[in-house]
Amino acid sequence: MNARPPKKVSASERLYRARRIGSTFGRIYLGAKAQRFIARRLRPPDMPERWAHFNRSSARAVYDTAIELRGLILKGCQFLGSRADVLPPEYVHVLSRLQDRVPPQPFAVARATVERELGRGLSELFADFSPRPIASASLAQVHEAHLQSGERVAVKIQYPEIESLVRGDLANLRFLFRALGFV
Predict the structure, then answer these.
(1) I need a surface site. Which of 17, 82, 121, 141 has the fewest CB within 10 A?
(2) For the chain, domain boundaries
(3) Could you give phi then psi for residue 50, rounded to 5 degrees?
(4) Is the pLDDT of residue 106 over 60?
């Protein structure tokens, strides 16, 4: 149970996140327009390879943005990484890594989160606690541990800032939809 209310994401952090997402997708959009222009006007014989290269580099840019920002953008990219029916294969290949191979937060953060949430030190709660997560995803990471009784357990640790990031991302989406006249 979270003892403290989630920290509110500052307006400058929300603005940074919106700018980062907008610039990433804006570059991809403009790049796709340029690729289409080249395909229509110049008709180079290597156009399929050009598209594959463009899609790979664009997918890596989306991946890097998702890893940096986490929150809803990461969750959305996880979903898209499983949608071969929607995205080119280069995107699916890169974004599918987000299903279960998100870079974890440092162990010091995980330790502090567990100790804050449970109100006791790791050594009081567990006989041992693996510093390396066995899985990490968009909202949490999982560590293997053994209780004092010897029972092997999996400890799921929600990233401490995730709730405030999601709230900020939702506020940005509300603003975007209002600005576009959808709401």
Answers:
(1) 121
(2) 11-99, 107-158
(3) -60, -45
(4) yes
Nearest CA-CA partner of 138 in 98, 109, 175, 111 = 98
Question: What percentage of the chain exceeds 70 in pLDDT?
Answer: 95
**CA-to-CA distance for 91 and 102, rounded, in angstroms?**
16
Rounded to 5°, angle at Cα 75 from 51 and 167 = 130
Residues 6+ apart with CB under 8 A from 103: 67, 136
The residue assigned the tokens 């937060």 is: 105
Over residues 17-45, mean pLDDT = 94
